[in-house]
Write a structure and sequence with these properties.
Length: 201
């Protein structure tokens, strides 16, 4: 679990665990980039007069598994933001979502999909295969910032199923939540400008 107040050794430990695929991260982007300066063997020395040894961080940041060192933060696999209403109500929303996941109330997809800002129709066949395992009774978008629910329309035909997205969306990312038999299943959707051929990213 991370937030914009996650720095230093907390970032370093999370980077090692996340980059090696050991954990899934939940919360908000970290307050420091994952490839920050660390201690290097060539940066130690001794003071010339006293002879006291000293240690310094290296000038070059690094990450495990040769991951991108230019990223400005650790971005969570499951983004959950604290809102003004959460602060007023003294609500720990990240812990609430973690409990929901551990109790089996939510199933968050490891995959995420990217769509064009102007896309309004999604083909169910284009979504992660786990969605097809059970009948989808209802589908909605959930704002990753304030968790507002926005209903979507799902239609079945002989050619498959399609989902109609709302026309007025102002955020760059949403959870697409499927009400299946047993538990809900959430897929993170990122909205970006489309390419000329209007294809999926």
């Amino acid at each position: 679990m991370i937030s914009n107040k996650t720095y230093s050794c907390s970032v370093y430990a999370t980077t090692i665990l996340k980059d090696n695929g050991i954990v899934k991260v939940i919360g908000e982007p970290s307050g420091e980039n994952p490839a920050f300066n660390r201690h290097g063997s060539g940066s130690d020395g001794k003071l010339p007069e006293s002879g006291w040894p000293f240690m310094m961080t290296s000038h070059k940041g690094s990450r495990p598994m040769d991951h991108d060192t230019s990223e400005i933060a650790i971005f969570p696999d499951i983004p959950v933001y604290t809102t003004r209403q959460d602060l007023i109500a003294n609500r720990d929303i990240q812990m609430e979502i973690m409990r929901q996941i551990s109790h089996g109330q939510y199933d968050y997809a490891e995959e995420h999909i990217t769509v064009g800002i102007e896309d309004k129709i999604l083909n169910l066949d284009s979504l992660p295969s786990k969605i097809h395992e059970q009948i989808v009774k209802k589908v909605w978008l959930e704002d990753t910032i304030n968790r507002k629910h926005i209903d979507c329309k799902i239609e079945y035909s002989k050619d498959g199923a399609t989902i109609t997205l709302p026309t007025h969306l102002d955020k760059s990312s949403y959870y697409l939540v499927f009400d299946r038999i047993g538990k809900d299943y959430a897929v993170l959707i990122s909205r970006q400008k489309k390419t000329d051929d209007r294809s999926w990213y």
